[in-house]
Amino acid sequence: MFSKDLEYTIGQCYKQARESRHEFMTVEHLLLALLDNPSAAGVLKVCGTDTGKLGSELKNIISETVPVLPAEDSRDTQPTLGFQRVLQRAVYHVQSSGRKEVTGANVLVAIFGEKDSHAVYFLNQQDVSRLDVVNYISHGVAKIGQDAPKADGDATKEGEGGEDGKSANPLGEFATNLNDQARLGKIDPLIGRAEEVERTIQVLCRRRKNNPLYVGEAGVGKTALAEGLAKRIVEGDVPEVLSAATIYSLDLGALVAGTKYRGDFEKRLKAVLAQLKKEPNAILFIDEIHTIIGAGSASGGTMDASNLIKPVLASGELRCIGSTTFQEYRGVFEKDRALARRFQKIDVVEPSVADAIEILRGLKSRFEDHHHVQYTSDALRAAVDLSVKHINDRLLPDKAIDVIDEAGARQQLLPEDERKTTIDVAEIEFIVARIARIPAKQVSASDKDVLRNLERNLKMVVFGQDEAIDSLTSAIKMARSGLANPDKPIGAFLFAGPTGVGKTEVTRQLAMQLGIELIRFDMSEYMEAHSVSRLIGAPPGYVGFDQGGLLTEKIVKTPHCVLLLDEIEKAHPDIFNILLQVMDRGTLTDTNGREANFRNVVLVMTTNAGAQQAARRTIGFVEQNHATDAMEVIRRAFTPEFRNRIDAIVQFRSLDFDHILRVVDKFVIELEMQLHEKHVALNVDPEARRWLAEHGFDPQMGARPMARVLQDRIKRPLADELLFGKLVGGGRVDVSVREGKLHIETQAEPEKLLPATVD
């Protein structure tokens, strides 16, 4: 709690009182000891105290008033209550202010609480008050000016917000010389942007209002334009009119920091502007220039940084380059019309893919020197192409630069024998997959085997729905081949059919085969008009409007997914209108203006509309096809503009008995794998398979009852055997049919072989 200096001071105070055989250690003893404490002595000197006179007065009063112990008295020197109160008061004040250490200066302030002591009387005699000490400790405001020592005078001037105590040149303190940074090689070269550079130079050469303002989205290179211009000035690659120019980047944070009193900020900024006027070729660069509006203004005041620089901007005395985003320009900067008219707006758009590749080629050597690797030309092209395709929330060239930078940084984390000296396309693919949170195989061309066998793999786990699987796989293959419309989702499908025939299972297996996430929304939760806001976010003014919507947040976080909207016919019609732009343009904007990209989403909607008509029995001797009747119901349920944007309306057929047997096999195989972990083999004979197929299928419910039948008739009896019965240590289970009922026979034999296959 006490600083080392203060502990030493208190120790010396006790030592001197004990050596003098004083009966008590008083506040005067403490103040006398503080005269040798660096912290307290410095404060006293700044406050104009004659420490020599004060010390002699304290010694005299101590010798006159403090009793001396006789030599034969064995008692030790004891601190007075006033002495103890001073230390307690100092500790309390320090804790209240959030600091951790008590210094001599804090104890000096606490001494003033003992108003009836000789120590305070002597301080008041020298015109030193508690306020003088507190002002210097808290705010650096000294009571005296020129009489103070040099070190304390510097601190005093700093506390008053002046620049004189810090630097003779305010530009050196509150701005960075970009020309010097370029000479030291700390600025990357500017590649391309010839049109923007020409426009910048043209504006800077104007007589009045010669202030360019770069406006563009984050990551397109606004700051790089100003820094690159400084590098070109140093290299002499600019017209003669700018050859002697010097660009200073204003550090607004340093300008505001430490300005505790009204007028401090204005004083600093005026000093910076005055220094810029003295340098006729100086150019001021303010990054994120919208932050100057309101910067440095006192509570309720109108004088901020923007109002201070308006006069010099309009007259042409100061040339200023600013940069900001479109959103901040419209929301903050443009509202101050008097400030906006003094700048000439220059739009900085995202570079094309070809320009971004040229930028990477120009910056390649910098990253190669830093990471000690080499980048192939194909890797640079892949960084741009893959970042454009998979990283949708950022812009070129920023996201492509980040990819090659991270690819080089990753090599430094590997063991030396595993590091690569050449970064190729495979490394870029790995980094893009990690940034975009998608499977690595989806970024590369190595997923051809998955696509080639996708149709077969889906038909092995979903039975009797070949038409639906064919439609899905063909759409995905077309998207992967690059022939599909890049502005639309990979596919938008409406699965229609009775319950329990595999509509949801197809989408679940598709996500599993592709290795991407399945996002499911039960549309029965969105039957009311107000529920639309749950998907895209509440409008401004409502509770939770800044949190975004469930659907848009999911897609922003997981842009590559299978999106399942289950039982879409139960949703409110307003939700259909939202889905129109998703299926048409592949985008959806939430209430905060953030755009969710659906271009890498497989959109699947399921419906039971028309299932009842399709399942009607035939009247007469000729088998009738009711698919047309079912399609008519779907047409009535969904608007024409909604149906026209769907890639395919896929009718799921009811399952026949052969398909039900295959469903039984699938469930039995899953149960076999579960029992295999318990060292139990399962054998289901053909009669038991047929019994399960007959009792686990309902024409109205499809194959959904199958899981319940297996659970009630097989899993539940086996649970007790696995926990407490014959199968605790493994064994064999035979399932058969006896007298029309399912019969289970267990044998307590540890199974040595693989699980029995289904006959």
From TrEMBL:
GO terms for molecular function: ATP binding; ATP hydrolysis activity; peptidase activity. InterPro entries: AAA+_ATPase, ATPase_AAA_core, Clp_ATPase_C, Clp_N_dom_sf, Clp_R_N, ClpA, ClpA/B, ClpA/B_CS1. Residues 147-171 are annotated as: Disordered. Keywords: ATP-binding, Chaperone, Hydrolase, Nucleotide-binding, Protease, Repeat. GO terms for biological process: cellular response to heat; protein unfolding; proteolysis. Residues 149-166 have a biased composition (Basic and acidic residues). The keyword Protease applies. The keyword Protein biosynthesis does not apply. GO terms for cellular component: cytoplasm. Residues 1-144 form the Clp R domain. Gene3D superfamilies: 1.10.8.60, Clp, N-terminal domain, P-loop containing nucleotide triphosphate hydrolases. Belongs to the ClpA/ClpB family. This is ATP-dependent Clp protease ATP-binding subunit ClpA. It comes from Chiayiivirga flava.
